[in-house]
Amino acid sequence: MKEAKTGRKHDRNAQESRQLILEAAFSLFAEKGFHGTTTKAIARQAGVSEGLIFHHFENKTAILGALVQGIVGSNLDVVMKSLIAQREGDDLEAILKDVFDLFERSAREGRLRDMIRIVFNSLMTLPDDEKQRFVRQIHDTLWIPLTEAMTPRMKNASVDPYIFFRIIQGSIMGYILFQEVLEWKKFVQLDPAQYRDTMASIMAAAVREKTPS
């Protein structure tokens, strides 16, 4: 009985120390950038030893991956519930408008917004092998669940799902890059609804053009 209690306490302490590391890393990545943050700085801010960081995570990129899974994954649940909903008379442009609306609303949340900037900035400095692993993790965390959630709504759209999702992926990433990373709204004033409708129309036309009749 005593051993069981000791084991539970150890697990709880391990979870708490892991969370302290993640919170410290997120704060420092947002402030100093991924490349400008060291594991020593993370350990100092978290109040743990640097060795404990490497007990939980293989390297700094693994910390970033855990943050993506935690922050993006929690927002993804909300996105999924909205996208799965089937509406009468659903068409391709309606689906695309929903996608852009949902991602813009999600991106307004502080932690997700900062996470998006951290991810894009880190991709510019990661070595190629780590970059490939990290991109694969983003793909598995975000794009696979999104594809599965959207599939039921694709039945009425009469388009090739693979082409649709590749175009969606590129357009969302471009939207996030320009709006959240480059902060282009500071320089160009666009009506969000007009931008959404225009992008949805362009993307729908591109998907239909690439889909065999």
From TrEMBL:
<protein>
    <submittedName>
        <fullName>Regulatory protein TetR</fullName>
    </submittedName>
</protein>
<dbReference type="InterPro" id="IPR001647">
    <property type="entry name" value="HTH_TetR"/>
</dbReference>
<dbReference type="InterPro" id="IPR050109">
    <property type="entry name" value="HTH-type_TetR-like_transc_reg"/>
</dbReference>
<feature type="domain" description="HTH tetR-type">
    <location>
        <begin position="15"/>
        <end position="75"/>
    </location>
</feature>
<dbReference type="InterPro" id="IPR009057">
    <property type="entry name" value="Homeodomain-like_sf"/>
</dbReference>
<dbReference type="GO" id="GO:0003677">
    <property type="term" value="F:DNA binding"/>
</dbReference>
<dbReference type="InterPro" id="IPR023772">
    <property type="entry name" value="DNA-bd_HTH_TetR-type_CS"/>
</dbReference>
<feature type="DNA-binding region" description="H-T-H motif">
    <location>
        <begin position="38"/>
        <end position="57"/>
    </location>
</feature>
<keyword id="KW-0238">DNA-binding</keyword>
<dbReference type="Pfam" id="PF00440">
    <property type="entry name" value="TetR_N"/>
</dbReference>
